UniProtKB/TrEMBL annotation:
Residues 1-24 form the signal peptide. Residues 150-181 are annotated as: Disordered. Keywords: Signal. This is Uncharacterized protein. It comes from Ficus carica (Common fig).
Amino acid sequence: MPRHAYIWFVLVGYLCIFTPSSSSIQYDKNPNTKSGESALDSKIGTTIHKKSPTSSSSPDVDSLSCQDLDGDGSLNTTCLLRSQLNLNSDLYVYGNGNLEILPYVSVMCLIEGCTVTFNLSGYVNIGHHATVVAGTVVFSASNLRMDDGSSVNTTSLGGLPPPQTSGVPAGYEGAGGGHGGRGASCWKNRKKNVWGGDVYGWSSLQEPWSYGSKGGRKSPESRYGGNGGGRIRVAVTDVVYVNGFVTADGGFGGSAGGGGSGGSIFVQAGKLKGYGTISAAGGTGWGGGGGGRISLDCRSIQDDLKISVRGGLSIGCPENGGAAGTYFNADSLTLRVGNDNVTTETETIFLDFPSSPFWSHATVENNARVLAPLLWSRIQVRGQISLYRRGSIIFGLGYFPMFSEFELVAEELLVSDSTIKVFGELRVTVKKMLMWNSKIDQTAVDELEDGKGFVSDVEFPKTNLVLP
Ligand SMILES: *[C@@H]1O[C@H](CO)[C@@H](O)[C@H](O)[C@H]1NC(C)=O
Ligand SMILES: *[C@@H]1O[C@H](CO)[C@@H](O)[C@H](O)[C@H]1NC(C)=O
Ligand SMILES: *[C@@H]1O[C@H](CO)[C@@H](O)[C@H](O)[C@H]1NC(C)=O
Ligand SMILES: *[C@@H]1O[C@H](CO)[C@@H](O)[C@H](O)[C@H]1NC(C)=O
């Protein structure tokens, strides 16, 4: 099969590709990460509960009104915030009315993991160029409107990542933190693929709620790189307008440390509208941080919104940025992994795909590089698996010889300007397959520890092949 071949397959029945087994090692699944969910547990009352972000025991509870927030009006009718609020502890705002943060007003708690919650029965408006900045920001309301230039920004303010995860890179390579995608490492060892912080939170990507991780250090004496991205949760019964920025990006590591990984954004709303940006991207650093996780559970989403889970840029190795995170559409059950054209040799990990229900589609695009490392992995969706614009999916691990078998099951497989790479045996079960300027690559030699790989051909069932 020629490389970069122009191939168009329409398969009447099933297509199976078997390649001789090569290698794989058992890949430990990351522990399920649900920690921090208790932060959503909330108190009821027309009060503002303040407590220290560092000690959750015996919180220092204050009962505050709209006036205590330096606002006008009441949280049971409409409260207008007119002046900047600088917080040094968590904030919980509860009321039966509405809240308006007026233009250019900011509400800030610049402490890692500091939590600001707005729980209103009515609407919340964030005026143009107004900002809410904290480690975790939660909105529960009937409607949320963010005007031009406004922002809800948890960038670089994440608290601790879940326990027993390895998102913060060990070693002194100044590698990026991991979360939705792995962080990049600029340490050159082409015999083995190397990466910085690892991924976590796959099993909760539909309702992501983990902080991003710090980027790595360059020496035992130096500080860690960029901090991890924070968390944003929006639960709105009616409409969310985003004409500003909703960000949970990883922090900047400079050339002295890795970029932090992106955090988590979870939006549930009837409709999501606007032309703003929702981003949980990895931070720039010596090695770029991995992208975070975004899930949007909305009946409709306006196309003009920019949604990004890209990896961070790597100052130490520009060709190898952080890996993309995950963007899940929880209404259509569609997973997208895209790196916004940031080139990378670092992988986003696919673990188990659920079967009850199956997801509808999975798309890997714009330079994202996905690895399905588990023995017996199966990537299965009801509809399409699509690879566009230099997307790639790698099945298996090339450097440790062992038998492994993979399955790709879908109605359609669409591959355009992209690559599928296989270490081991891959069974593709699809009704229709379209390949444009793409290849299925099984030349594993360069990735094997001892340089002795295998090279094999893919046998397509000729009777089922229709060439244009
Ligand atoms: C908001 O308050 C309601 C009670 O009115 C409660 O059930 C809900 O959990 C609260 N949400 C958040 C995010 O605090
Ligand atoms: C707001 O309404 C609740 C009951 O709905 C009441 O308990 C509370 O005192 C009211 N707060 C103010 C400031 O009016
Ligand atoms: C969010 O905060 C980060 C860190 O302070 C800052 O660099 C970035 O410009 C902010 N983003 C927006 C959209 O305000
Ligand atoms: C990525 O590149 C494609 C062309 O290959 C372009 O259409 C697209 O706009 C680019 N995306 C970004 C986010 O730069």
